[in-house]
Amino acid sequence: MINEPIYHSNLGKCFCGDSIELIPALEDDSIDLAITSPPFALQRQKEYGNKPQDEYIDWLSRFAKILLPKLKNTGSFVLDLGGAYQKGIPVRSLYNYKILVRFCEELGYYLAEEFFWHNPSKLPSPIEWVNKRKIRVKDSVNTVWWFSKTPNPKADVRNVLVPYSDRMVKLIENSEKYYTPKERPSGHDISVGFGKDNGGAIPTNLLQIANSESNSRYLALCKLLGVKAHPARFPSKLPEFFIKMLTDPGDVVLDFFAGSNTTGAVAEELKRQWIAFEENLEYIAASISRFVQDKNDVKEMYVKIINGEKIGFIQK
């Protein structure tokens, strides 16, 4: 059994503890989507905790193994992983690709599709190879693996359509002027239906989302509380994309490295049920600011959580 949540909202619950102990307490076949961004396998030790590269694959595989039976047969597991260099040399680590192979070939996951998150606002790193010696370019792309329990997870791309290009808009308005239905040299058969307005274009698996948050309510309230914000937050648009595409309202979304609980806040906005696991109580206490509007209420709840109290129902 999972202990009482630190706080809960209309749709979700946030628990404090080690996910390796909390995940087994979930019901089997109960999770529609697990989405998380764990501490990466970086060379430098971060304040939020991260395993060295030689231990990382085994460490993360433990979580993935116990998560699999908790997913519904239509469920998905989306994993955001940043790249890294090997220690002391300008050569990339393969850890994130080894995780992909381990999960699929040994643990029984399917790779539904690979995504790449491009963060144009990411700072140049590592300094030694990019800034000082200038022998490598800026690394601004994370790998995002979309795993599934079965070959046919729930998904609907119509929920994440993107605006048409100006050219496509013109084509839809007057398709006869801009193209002639016929088979192209590539072998694609472009029919008269190509000019149909479907409400938007199908997105690509390259997600361009800037992670440049600087004036959010979360950061403002962390400053008000005099506490340091979680240093490795992912932007809300990243979980938003996958929650929209892979779940329906009322479905259950899990983040088992919740950090500042971005996933829970997004799931709440999208009318999904959510479960958040995080072992750092200070991060949990500060994440209240994602659900509570009044600054005084946030301060009061933060102090209560830090002092070991549980917060009852909170209404966003």
Summarize the model shown.
The protein has 316 residues and is an alpha/beta fold. Helix content is 30%, strand content 18%. The chain has a nine-stranded mixed β-sheet, with helices on both faces. A two-stranded antiparallel sheet has the order 7-8.
Oligomeric state of shown chains: single chain
What would the average pLDDT be, to the nearest integer? Answer: 87
The CATH superfamily of the largest domain is known as: Vaccinia Virus protein VP39
Note poorly predicted spans: none
- Summed up, the domain count is 2
How would you classify the helix and strand content by structural class?
alpha/beta
Strand content: 15-25%
Helix content: 25-40%
What is the CATH architecture descriptor of the largest domain? 3-Layer(aba) Sandwich
Q: Determine and state the CATH class of the largest domain.
A: Alpha Beta
Number of helices: 11
Structure commentary:
By secondary structure, the chain is an alpha/beta fold. The protein has 2 domains: 216 residues, Vaccinia Virus protein VP39 (Rossmann fold), CATH 3.40.50; 39 residues, no CATH class. Helix content is 30%, strand content 18%. It contains 11 helices and 11 strands. It has a 9-stranded mixed beta sheet with strand order 1-2-11-10-3-4-6-5-9, with helices on both faces. It has a two-stranded antiparallel sheet with strand order 7-8. Helix 9 links the parallel strand 10 and strand 11. Helix 2 runs parallel beside helix 3, helix 8 crosses helix 9 and helix 10 runs antiparallel to helix 11.
